[in-house]
Amino acid sequence: MTSRKRSEHAISSSWPKSGPEKKKSGPRPSRTSPRSPSTPQSSEKKTHQTKTSTNAQKNLELAKSSTEANETAALLDQAVQGFTHYFDHPVAFVEDFLKAKPEPYQADILEAIAEYPAVAVRSGHGPGKTATGAWADLWFLAIRPMSKVPTTAPTFEKQVRDVFWAEIHRWVRGSALEGSFTLSQTRMAVRDYEEEWFSAGISAGRPENLEGFHAPYLLYIIDEAKGVSDGIFDAIQGALTEEAKLLLLSTPGSRHGYFYKVFTKLRSTWKTFHIPCLGRWENGKAIPSNTPICPRISRAWVRTRKAEWGEDSSIYQARVLGEFPDEGEDTLIPLSWIEAAQIGPGKAYEGKRRALGVDVARYGKNLTVFSLIEGAKLLHVRQRRRQSLTQTAGEAKRLAREWKADVVAVDDTGVGGGVTDILREAGVSVLPILLGASSSEPEYYANLKADLFWGLRKAFEEGEISLSEEGLPRKDLELLVGQLSAMKYEHRQGGQIRIVDPDEVSGASFSGPKKSPDHAHPFGVSPDFRSGEARPPVRHRNPLQ
Fold first, then answer.
1. Which of 166, 179, 163, 138 is nearest to 250 (CA)?
2. Would you call 197 helix, strand, or coil by DSSP?
3. Cα 35 to Cα 32: distance, rounded to the nearest angstrom
4. Strand (E) or helix (H) holding 142
5. What is the torsional sign of CA 356, 360, 366, 367?
6. What pTM was computed for the model?
7. How many CA atoms lie less than 13 Å away from 223 in the CB half-sphere?
8. N-term to C-term CA, the chain
9. How does pLDDT run across 283-305, given as a tens digit for each residue?
10. Cβ contact 482:512 at 8 Å
């Protein structure tokens, strides 16, 4: 079977109801044989009549067979024409086979994949970039004979399996394609050609995982490409020697790495798209607007993100505007480091202990936050609004018991001192943290707050922190990411580092979080318990090195 016939077979076996229909045939020739005369006939005449009847029957069968052959040929001709049409028109394929209606920007992306060898999409959170990637996968695999579609992302279990391939399953299930594919958790193949005609989820842990793919038609799809190492892209580029294509999808991240280069230094060799959450899509680009770019994004979601993160924050720029964050040299913890911690395992500390951090807000508009750290891994987050000191202390005691915390680290500044006193009276192991106190290294840090948070910065930079625990409330985690990425620092006249709170940032229009997140406090103390005594570690290092 030739490649074209294989593809015709694959697509015609699942042709949608709206596809080509069989032509109606004319009246069927009569199957009855000539009536026997009523007069007696000789045996010779009867034999002749029997032969005549048999020949007539054969002629009728031949005529019927010829008619059906013509009908089959006509149907196959229509199938070939349809196959050729879908080959270069992925939007029509998505509409006919998957019964989906792409947004205008999704349609432009799909058409670009058919036309260009390399397409990259940076977008905010919510416009449907992963669905676009899944549609591209299904179109390419179904229409191109003996094709292969390797797909990957920074993490296999979470992003490849639970996000991208969950989207594949969503669109295959119940579609006109379902009977044509064998589908497992992270692999899909055309029936009868499982070994040479397939799409698969691949781990991006090692570059060699993406090497060795060869096919007449090849499409690499990389979701959340900002988090994939340059070595992976080098491995893929080495395979792009035949008729091959590459699709990158991601929210923007650091202004370093291959994904950023695609939109800057390498832009001339790529077809690029920018899809913000707010805007109006016209002539292949987003026109600035206060209107959500698609119905999936609500105005309320945008308002909430603006209030929690602030318009000038790195996370708002990346996840709402779809822009690469404009992080200055005074950013304490770059967003790219925080996002890496959301997919990384962190550092495994020996003899690690658990610290419950409590940031006390009482009746103000700020939140009281409880966070549990084990080693350098965030395990739990709880937030409360408008609690009394007694209520906060009671909940801290209950959570310390429920989460099996070894110590409760309380922000002892201001109203936090009352919570510390109540917990001590109740016999709870408490570590009060007075952020305005002197650092053990005053030549480097303006106060203990600068000491702790600079240590947190170094831990993020070195990949020690993990924010990837399953089950963490997404809303709370997003708020933490927004708070951490908004923090700034400065050098005092004497050279000491000082943390600049968001409400000190110049410009009264800042609408993000107004205080430093206490989630960091247990990170600062938990890795270095000495002889069972909980106290901030003494680092003895120059932070400027």
1. 163
2. coil
3. 8
4. helix 129-143
5. positive
6. 0.67
7. 31
8. 66
9. 899 998 999 999 999 999 999 99
10. yes
